[in-house]
Write a structure and sequence with these properties.
This protein is of the alpha+beta class. The chain is 30% helix and 25% strand. The strands form 12 sheets. Strands 30, 31, 33, 36 and 37 form a 5-stranded mixed sheet that branches. It has a 4-stranded mixed sheet with strand order 14-9-8-17. A 4-stranded antiparallel sheet has the order 10-11-13-12, covered by helices on one side. It starts with 7 loop residues before the first helix and ends in a 14-residue tail after the last helix.
Length: 833
C-alpha cells in the first residue's frame, strides 16, 4: 500500500474521557432495559416479551378457537421473529401467563404441567401445549385495522406492534412485576368488573378523585384470594402510586377431636410458595419457636389449598394464631405503580392510570373508525359503480363484448360512464349472475347499509361524546363477558401483631426478692393444698437474698408497682421473664430501675383504676394519703413519686378506693383501726398524708384493706411464723382516724409479727410465700373463722428460721378456673389451734 494512502479508520478515531463514555453507555443500557424489557406500558399493561408472545400467537392463528399448539413452536416463532433472546426467558413468560395462581385472568390457555403453587417448575416446552385465552384476544381485537403503530422487528424483516389495542385496562386487571435499572414496578391485580366500572366513572366524570374511584375499586383482587388487612395501605397506593398492603391468609379454627382444635388454611398470600410456607412452619415448630402445634399437613389438591395445623390439647388457640400470622400467614405487598408513559417511566395514581388508558382507547377507536370509514367509503364507491352499470346494463355488455381486451373495456367504461379505475375494474370482473334484478335489489340494500355506516362513523369521529360512548359500550361488553366474583376479601386492621398478642393470657405469680431478682410462674402450676403444709419451692434465692413480695397478676395486665421508698413504676406483666419454680429469677434492673434497698411492697392493675377513684396508701409509721388515679396515668420509665416519706418511713400497702369506703389499717403488733375514708382528703403525689393510726412504741403498720358496710368478706391476717385467722370485717367497728384501734390477733413468740392482711371470701384461694422461697396455695375457707383477739391456726409451716414474706389472694372465679390444671404439691398438716 502506498504511503500516501490515508488511514481511513484512524481518521475516524475520537478521543473521549473514559468516564464520559462509561456514563453514556450505562445510560443507554439502562434506558434499553427500562423501555425494552422490564417495565410495562401503561396502555396495554404488557412488557415487550408478553406483547410479542401474544402477537406471535395471533400471527400463527393459535387463538382460543383453535387447537393447542406445542409451546416450543410458539417460543420458536416468538424468538425467531420478534424477541431475539433466550428461549428459557420466553418460555418462563409463557408459563406465567398460563398460571391461574399467578395471573388474575390468564392470557394463555395451557395444557400440560405449567408448575404449581409449591414452586414446582413447568414441564419442558416440548411437553406442554398452549393457545390464547379468550380474554387475551380482547387485547388484540382490531389490531389489523391500523389502531396502533408498528415498528420493524429486530432484523427489519417484519413489523411488530408498539402496543396492543387492549379492550380493557390490563395493567390494573392483571398487574405487573419487574425490576429495571434503578427502579422497579409492582402493580397488584384487580377485579375486572371493578376496574371497568372505575374506567367508566373516569369517562363520565373527569373531575372525580381517587375516593370516588374507590367506590368501585375496593382494592386489589389476587388470584390466590386471601385477605387484605385494612384499607389504609390500599388508599395510599391509589392516591400516591406507592403503598404497602398487608395480605393475610384465609384460615379458620375447627373442632377436631374432644378437647382438640386445628387451624385450617384455605387461601395463602399472593406469590407465596406453599411448600416453603409449610416447611418454614415445621422448622419453627421443631426449633421451639412455635408452641402448641402437634401436627402439620398439606392436604391441598386440584380443588384448592388446604393446610391443616393440629393443635395440642390445651393449647392457646389465639396465641398460636397470632404467632402464625406474625411469622408466616401474613405478607406485605409493596405497591409501586410504575409504568411507561410515552416511553418514560412514571409512578401513577389510580386515576392517572385509568386516564392514560382512556386516552389510549380514544386513539384506538378513532383510528379504527377512520379505517372502517375508509373501507366503507371504498365499498360505497364500488357499489355506486355497479349500480350505474346496472342502469345501462345492455350498453355495458355490448361495450365489453366489442372491446379488444380487458384494458380497452375498462377505458371505454371510464370514458362513457365517468367511472373510476376501481369501479371499471370491478365491473369487467362481474359475473353474468350479477345482472339479475334480485342482485340489483341486494346491491341497493347493501349500499344503503354502507351509507348508514359511513354516516355513523363520521358522527363518531366528529363528536367525542359519541366516541366515548363507544368506548363505554365496549368496556361493558368485556365486563359482561369476563367479570367474576371478587376473590380477595378485607379484614379489619387491628394493628400489627404485637408481642403481647403472642403471650397467652393467664394468671401468674410474680416473685420479687430483696436483691431485685424477679420472675413469673403460671398460677395453674400450683394446686391448692390443705392449710398447714410447707408448700413447694417457688423460687431458689441466692445465699443472703430472700423473697420480699409475691403477687398475682394477668400476663396482659399493666401494673403499677409501689415501692417502700414511695415511688411507683409501670410494668407490663408479660415483660417479667417466665421461669421454672426452682429458678432464682432475672435481675429486675432492665424492667424496673430500683435503687439499693428499694422493694416492691404493693401492686395495683390499671384495670382497677377509674378516673373518679383514688389510690389510697399507708406507710409503716401510720400515715395515710389519697391521690387521684388520674395522677398516675403517665408514669416515666424511671418511676415517679407516689408519696413523700419521712426519714426511716416506708410505703407499706395500697388500695383503690372510691371515696365512700372504710379503711382498715393493721399493724405488725396485731392492732387494727377502721375509719371512714372521707377523713383523708385527696392530695397531690408529692405529699406525706395524715396520721391514720396511733402506734405503740416499736409497732409498725403491716397492711391496708378497703371495705364498706355491705362487705361480707373476712379480714385474713397472717403472721411471720405462718399462723393466721379470718374474722368478719363487720367485727371491726368504725372509729375516728388516728386512734389506737382494736386488737386483731395475738402476736408473740408463737405467731411472730403480722406480715399481711387481706380481705377474702370463703371461695377465694390464698397464696403464701416465705422468705426462703417456699410457696403454698390453699383455700381461704380452710383458715378458721374466729373472733378478734385470738391466735389463729397454722396456715403455712415455715421451718429453719424461715418466715412468711408475702400473701396474695386469688379471687373465687379465678381460683375455680385455675385449680383444674395445677401441679402436685406437698400435703397439708393437721390443724393446730
Amino acid at each position: 500500500m502506498s504511503s500516501d494512502t490515508p488511514d481511513v479508520p484512524a481518521d475516524r478515531v475520537e478521543h473521549v474521557r473514559i468516564e464520559d463514555e462509561m456514563e453514556q453507555s450505562y445510560i443507554d443500557y439502562a434506558m434499553s432495559v427500562i423501555a425494552g424489557r422490564a417495565l410495562p406500558d401503561v396502555r396495554d399493561g404488557l412488557k415487550p416479551v408478553h406483547r410479542r408472545i401474544l402477537y406471535a400467537m395471533h400471527e400463527m392463528g393459535v387463538t382460543s378457537r383453535t387447537g393447542h399448539r406445542k409451546s416450543s413452536s410458539i417460543v420458536g416463532e416468538t424468538m425467531g421473529d420478534f424477541h431475539p433472546h433466550g428461549d428459557k426467558a420466553i418460555y418462563d413468560t409463557l408459563v406465567g401467563m398460563a398460571q391461574e395462581f399467578s395471573m388474575r385472568y390468564p392470557l394463555v390457555d395451557g395444557q400440560g404441567n405449567f408448575g404449581s403453587m409449591d414452586g414446582d417448575p413447568a414441564a419442558a416446552m416440548r411437553y406442554t401445549e398452549a393457545r390464547m385465552s379468550p380474554i387475551s384476544e380482547e387485547l388484540l381485537a382490531d389490531i389489523e385495522k391500523d389502531t396502533v403503530d408498528f415498528s420493524s422487528n429486530y432484523d427489519d424483516r417484519m413489523q411488530e406492534p408498539d402496543v396492543l389495542p387492549a379492550a380493557y385496562p390490563n395493567l390494573l386487571v392483571n398487574g405487573s412485576t419487574g425490576i429495571a435499572v434503578g427502579m422497579s414496578t409492582k402493580v397488584p391485580p384487580h377485579n375486572l368488573g371493578e376496574i371497568i366500572d372505575a374506567t367508566i366513572e373516569v369517562i363520565d366524570d373527569p373531575t372525580c378523585d381517587v375516593a370516588d374511584l374507590m367506590e368501585h375499586v375496593k382494592g386489589p383482587d389476587f388470584p390466590t384470594g386471601a385477605n387484605i388487612v385494612g384499607r389504609n395501605g390500599v388508599r395510599k397506593a391509589y392516591t400516591t402510586g406507592r403503598g404497602r398492603i398487608r395480605i393475610r391468609a384465609e384460615f379458620e379454627v375447627e373442632e377436631w377431636k374432644k378437647d382438640r382444635k386445628r387451624i385450617v388454611v384455605t387461601e395463602i398470600p399472593y406469590q407465596e410458595n406453599k411448600a416453603r410456607l409449610v416447611e418454614r412452619i415445621a422448622d419453627d415448630v421443631n426449633e421451639g419457636k412455635l408452641e402448641g402445634i402437634s401436627d402439620l399437613r398439606d392436604e391441598s389438591d386440584r380443588d384448592g389449598v388446604r393446610i391443616v395445623i393440629e393443635l395440642k390439647r390445651g393449647a392457646n388457640v389465639e396465641v398460636v394464631k397470632n404467632r402464625l400470622v406474625e411469622s408466616h400467614l401474613e405478607q406485605t405487598f409493596g405497591v409501586i405503580n410504575l409504568a411507561l408513559v410515552d416511553g418514560q417511566p412514571k409512578v401513577l395514581t389510580l386515576k392517572e392510570t385509568l386516564e392514560h388508558y382512556v386516552d389510549h382507547r380514544k386513539e384506538v377507536v378513532r383510528r379504527r373508525s377512520e379505517f372502517d370509514l375508509q373501507e366503507a367509503e371504498d365499498r360505497a364507491h364500488i357499489l355506486e359503480g355497479r349500480l350505474k352499470a346496472l342502469d345501462h346494463i345492455d350498453d355495458v355488455v355490448e361495450l365489453i363484448r366489442g372491446s379488444e381486451d380487458r384494458d380497452a373495456a375498462k377505458t371505454g367504461l371510464e370514458e362513457r360512464y365517468d367511472l373510476s379505475e376501481a369501479q371499471s375494474e370491478h365491473i369487467v370482473r362481474m359475473q353474468l349472475g350479477s345482472l339479475t334484478s334480485m342482485e340489483r335489489t341486494e346491491i341497493e340494500e347493501e349500499y344503503e347499509g354502507v351509507q348508514e355506516t359511513i354516516e355513523y362513523l363520521e358522527s363518531v369521529l366528529a363528536d367525542e361524546e359519541k366516541l366515548l360512548d363507544v368506548i363505554k359500550t365496549e368496556l361493558r361488553e368485556v365486563r359482561d363477558e369476563y367479570d367474576d366474583d371478587r376473590r380477595t376479601s378485607f379484614v379489619e386492621d387491628t394493628g400489627e401483631v404485637t408481642h403481647e398478642d403472642l403471650i397467652p393470657e393467664e394468671d401468674v405469680f410474680v416473685v420479687v426478692t430483696e436483691d431485685d431478682y424477679i420472675k413469673r410462674m403460671p398460677v395453674s402450676r400450683f394446686d391448692a393444698q390443705n392449710r398447714g403444709g410447707k408448700g413447694i419451692i417457688g423460687v431458689d434465692p441466692k445465699e443472703g437474698d430472700r423473697v420480699s413480695t409475691v403477687f398475682r397478676a394477668n400476663t396482659h395486665d399493666y401494673l403499677l408497682c409501689f415501692t417502700n421508698r414511695g415511688k411507683v413504676y409501670q410494668l407490663k406483666t408479660y415483660q417479667v421473664p417466665e421461669m421454672s419454680r426452682t429458678a432464682r429469677g432475672k435481675s429486675a434492673v432492665n424492667l424496673i430501675d430500683l435503687d439499693d434497698g428499694e422493694e416492691i411492697t404493693a401492686v395495683v392493675t390499671t384495670d382497677e383504676m377509674g378516673d373518679d377513684e383514688s389510690i389510697t396508701m399507708v406507710t409503716r409509721d401510720g400515715y395515710v394519703k389519697r391521690t387521684r388515679c388520674e395522677d398516675f396515668r403517665n408514669i416515666l420509665s424511671t418511676g415517679i413519686i407516689a408519696a413523700k416519706l419521712e426519714e426511716d418511713d416506708e410505703l407499706v400497702d395500697v388500695e383503690v378506693t372510691d371515696g365512700s369506703m372504710d379503711l382498715v389499717v393493721a399493724t405488725e403488733g396485731g392492732m387494727t383501726i377502721r375509719f371512714d375514708e372521707s377523713e383523708v382528703r385527696t392530695m397531690g403525689r408529692n405529699t406525706r398524708g395524715v396520721r391514720g393510726i396511733e402506734l405503740e412504741d416499736g409497732d409498725r403498720v403491716a397492711g391496708l384493706v378497703a371495705t364498706d358496710e355491705a362487705d361480707e368478706r373476712a379480714l385474713l391476717t397472717v403472721t411471720e411464723n405462718g399462723y393466721g385467722k379470718r374474722t368478719k370485717l363487720s367485727n371491726y367497728r368504725v372509729q375516728s382516724r388516728y386512734g389506737k384501734g382494736l386488737i386483731d390477733i395475738k402476736t408473740g413468740d408463737r405467731n411472730g409479727q403480722v406480715v399481711s392482711v387481706k380481705a377474702v371470701t370463703a371461695d377465694d384461694d390464698i397464696v403464701v410465700m416465705s422468705e426462703g422461697g417456699q410457696i403454698m396455695r390453699t383455700h381461704a375457707a380452710d383458715v378458721s373463722m374466729v373472733n378478734r383477739n385470738t391466735k389463729g391456726v397454722v396456715v403455712m409451716r415455715v421451718e429453719g428460721g424461715d418466715h412468711v414474706a408475702s400473701v396474695d389472694v386469688i379471687p373465687a372465679p379465678r381460683a375455680a378456673a385455675e385449680e383444674a390444671g395445677g401441679e402436685a404439691t406437698t400435703g397439708g398438716a393437721p390443724a393446730e389451734e
